[in-house]
Amino acid sequence: MEIETTIIGAGVIGLAIAAQLSEKDKNILLIERNTTFGEEISSRNSEVIHAGIYYPKDSLKAKLCVEGNRHLRLLCKKKRIPHRMCGKLIVATRDEEISQLEALAIRARDNGVNDLVLKSKEECQQLEPQVQAKAGLYSPSTGIIDSRRLMRQFIAQAKRNGVNLVYQTQVTKVEKTGSSKYKIEVVYPDGKKDSFTTSRLINAAGMNADKIAETMGIDIDQCGYRQHFWKGEYFSIEWPKDQLKHLVYPVPEPQITGLGVHATIDLSGRIKLGPNARYMPDHNIDYAVDPGGRDEFFNAARIYLPTLKKEELAPEMAGIRPKLQQPGDPVKDFIINEESPKGLPGVVNLVGIESPGLTSSIAIARYVKKLIDKQAPI
Fold first, then answer.
1. How many helices (H) and strands (E) in the chain?
2. Are residues 264 and 309 in the same domain?
3. Which residues pair with 353 in a beta bridge?
4. Which residues contact 288 (CB under 8 A, 6 or more apart)?
């Protein structure tokens, strides 16, 4: 069997790429190792539409988040995907943090986010009576979304355009053949092995993306492709719905290993805290939430939610982020590379795609299409 374009990974990124490429290209195969779409990073997150505030100027994260925010909001309106632009309040709970808010506002403007508003203590109280803050930075272009409905929209678009989506298919090896095509070896749940050839390959395998790249012969340490797992846990707050109207974030952690334990709301008005950021050097896939973490979450949140009681917290869920940084490392950008310089024309590797990947999904898909279109036609 020979395929023109193969996409590995049916998370929100792989699905967005399939939807985008299939508008023009045909004979596209999308393969996923799990039993259905979006089982890993895409369904275990805060479901936030980010504005593009935190990321270094001119980084892919900054550019694709700002562009993606715009495209995502337009798609949600057009296709009636449930979402709400509820806004976000980043709070300074100490006087010395106010300068950090001002620095964030400058960074956001550098990234093209021009709608942030610095709020006084009194204005923060008016926005969110439950929140205690010395000052705040308000982002009206931050919101929440039903991520599964978004992914279903991408699937519907891709299938309408003829994409073949296959689940429970694990890629074990990618090998370049002499004809500038690629042999893809796979294994099925029953242990049966199979292979096919493809002319183009998009590696959007999420937590497994670096391992897929390694099977191509890429030195993932030399190239900086090795991913490091960070677990993020969430606790829900047993408060009446709509006690918070906005997302509430502390100032970000050093090196942005996480955005701090923040309070988010879902489309039904439920409130949850998280995620934390716990380094997992053994790459163990563990989605259990440690009930003993209640103290950590309570102590972090009560700084800006002073009426919160510890007994109001309950374990909610956990997710794992594939970062390109270990503890103490500087912030790392997305890796989205067309691999002709490595002797792999027609291959695009997407590695370290964590937050703001959901927000950036459409923009990432458009970026991948541009990389593909630069190559000679098949």
1. 8, 20
2. yes
3. none
4. 318
Q: Is 68 domain-assigned? A: no
Query: Could you tell me the residue range of the domain that residue 17 belongs to?
Result: 2-44+148-226+331-373
> Are 307 and 161 members of one domain?
no
User: For the purposes of burial, counting CB atoms within 10 Å of the CB of 70, is it exposed (0-12), middle (13-18) or buried (19 or more)?
Assistant: middle
Residue 67 lies in a domain: no
Which helix or strand (DSSP H or E) is residue 209 part of? helix 209-215
Q: What is the CATH number of the domain that holds 312?
A: 3.30.9.10
pLDDT digits (tens, 9 = 90+) for 122-152: 999 999 999 999 999 999 999 999 999 999 9
Burial class (CB in 10 A: 0-12, 13-18, 19+), 98: middle
CB proximity list for 87: less than 8 A, separation 6 or greater: 138, 139, 140, 141, 142, 143, 246, 247
Peptide bond preceding 140 in cis form (omega within 30 of 0):
no
Lookup result for tokens 């999308």:
30
Residue 130, token pair as written in the block: 């439950």
d(CA 122, CA 133): 9
Give this prediction's pTM: 0.96
